[in-house]
Specification:
Blueprint lengths: L1 E5 L6 E5 L6 E3 L6 E3 L13 H6 L8 E5 L5 E6 H9 L8 E4 L6 E2 H4 L25 H4 L21 H13 L4 H18 L7 H31 L1
Antiparallel strand pairs: 1-2, 3-4, 5-6, 5-7, 7-8
């Protein structure tokens, strides 16, 4: 005869030979190791996955993971920490829970029936969290994991002057050398501002080109002035 039992990890009905009574076996579905009972169960009652996951000590032991509606996963954490999140309103009926050692996610309101009476997902904009119970993460909530990336806040940036700097550098070569030092000085200042994030970096290429042209012409101009001064002294 065969011995029928229910896996406590995934609630699958298992059947093994009676020669394995009292021995260890592994569930082929979730891999959980269990002890084969010593009595034959001819008609084992069906157990719903959520009920088996929460029955007895199994629901209150081990570590759990939380998946919120937008797909982010938190944990694993102890069951006591999940209880704390429920009390704080961070877990809704739209979330799912997974106990370590199992492969089946369960709706949170089957683990915590009191969540069934709550709104599954708050409308976006109705609260500061916008549907994500951990949106206020690292700064003021100790349960939020630090590895979750937060959107970068955009700051107002000064428009770049890349075109102007490049035009000044070209004018220094084509029209008058006095434009070159301005191109060099402005380009150097703007590049520092771009690297600091206070200026729009999209003009970095033109700014660098204008600064280099202005710098070359300014250096050549200084060399010519030095040579002219030395020539004047020699004569």
């Amino acid at each position: 005869m065969a011995i029928e039992t229910i896996c406590q990890g995934c609630a699958r009905k298992l059947r093994v030979g009676d020669e394995y009574a009292g021995k260890k076996a592994r569930c082929p579905q979730c891999g959980m190791i269990y002890t084969v009972p010593g009595i034959v169960v001819d008609h084992a009652p069906e157990v719903a996955p959520a009920a088996s996951a929460t029955s007895g000590a199994s629901a209150n032991s081990g570590r759990w993971q939380l998946r919120i509606p937008d797909g982010r996963v938190y944990g694993p954490v102890a069951k006591s920490e999940l209880d704390q999140w429920v009390r704080e309103g961070r877990i809704t009926g739209a979330c799912h829970l997974l106990r370590d050692g199992t492969q089946m996610w369960h709706p949170a309101d089957t683990i915590y029936p009191e969540l069934a009476a709550r709104t599954a997902t708050p409308p976006v904009g109705s609260t500061s969290r916008g549907g994500n119970p951990f949106a206020d993460t690292a700064s003021d909530h100790p349960y939020s994991p630090s590895h979750v990336a937060q959107p970068m806040r955009r700051t107002r940036q000064t428009p770049h002057r890349g075109v102007l700097i490049l035009v000044l550098a070209i004018l220094g070569w084509a029209v008058c050398f006095v434009f070159a030092p301005f191109a060099w000085a402005m380009g150097n200042t703007d590049l520092r501002a771009m690297r600091a994030g206070s200026m729009d970096p999209r003009g970095m290429g033109m700014t660098q080109a204008g600064m280099i042209l202005g710098m070359i012409q300014t250096v050549l101009l200084l060399l010519l002035l030095v040579l002219a001064f030395l020539f004047a002294l020699a004569s």
